[in-house]
Amino acid sequence: MSNPKGKSIEITIPSDPEVMGIVRAVISKAVEKVCECPNEINRLILAVDEACTNIIKHCYQGCPDNKISLTVTVFEKQLEIRLRDYGRKHDTRTFRARDLKDIKPGGLGMHFIQEIMDKVEYDTSHEVGTEMILTKFFDCKNKSEKDDNEN
Amino acid sequence: MKINIDTIQGINVIKLIGDVDMSSSPDIRDHFLNMLKKKPPVIVIDMNEVDYIDSSGVATFVECLQGLMKHNGVLKISNLKENVLDVFKLARLDTIFELYDNLEDALKA
Which contiguous run of DSSP H or E holds residue A64? Predict the structure, then answer.
């Protein structure tokens, strides 16, 4: 896969926690295109899951009848995941991971996202909702690059 | 998510089967709360058939731990798969919970 523009897949999912298993399966397949490391793959799945969960909880107040648009773009050594909600806007400057020294339930999602992803950005220019952009850079060779080198 | 509750050697064992995420955590939490009503000295969570956990799952476990600590109870977690253990490490909770490689060790300790 040597297209500098990358290859994208876009899916729209309901804001229903019951579908997160399907989302994880889709992300898993996409990440496998650019990385072979099981630990990295699992962590990326977690980051996307947490981002979707945050949208469901905070943008949609747990209502399962809304939608989340998920765009996964695979570049040569980079993965970009865009999550677009159409719900309540928040001041993204307040999105911070909490202090882990305080042992308490909750508040870990943002920490996981920030720990796992190399870049976490927000596009608040949409009239409705927010777009979260998660970027991960890879050092490991992707499968197609390996195949190209072997041929 | 399937949840099996058992008593082995007099110890409450809750076996989780499936993914521990936002959809299954509330049900798991309800089971924990029911067990905590009886103030058990020990609860063991068998994670042998859990392939995934997210922050909502971890939060549920923390809540269970805090409930047990109120009466000096102990929470033990056994059979964590590598990717699941990684989540506990990311949350810096791998040293807070008592973790065991297998159920037998958790029951003996």
Answer: none
The CA distance from B57 to A141, in Å, is 33
- Whether A110 contacts B60, CB under 8 Å: no
**DSSP element (H, E) containing A12:** strand A7-14
CA distance A99 to A110: 11
The C-alpha atoms of residue B35 and residue B14 are separated, in whole angstroms, by: 10
Nearest to A53 by CA among A122, A132, A140, A116: A132
Interface test with B, best of A31, A46, A54 (most B CBs within 10 A): A46
Q: Which of B37, B2, B14 is nearest to B107 (CA)?
A: B14
Q: What is the dihedral of CA B89, B93, B95, B101, to 10 degrees?
A: -70
ipTM of this complex prediction, to 2 decimal places:
0.92
Strand partners, B76: B44, B98
Span A55-93, pLDDT tens digits: 999 899 999 999 999 999 998 889 999 999 998 777 776
For residue B92, which residues of chain A lie inside 8 Å, CB to CB? 100
Nearest by Cα to A65 from A29, A19, A33 = A19
Taking CB atoms and an 8 Å cutoff, what residues of chain A touch B93? Answer: 103
Q: Indicate the length of chain A as a whole number.
A: 151
* pTM of the entire predicted model: 0.88
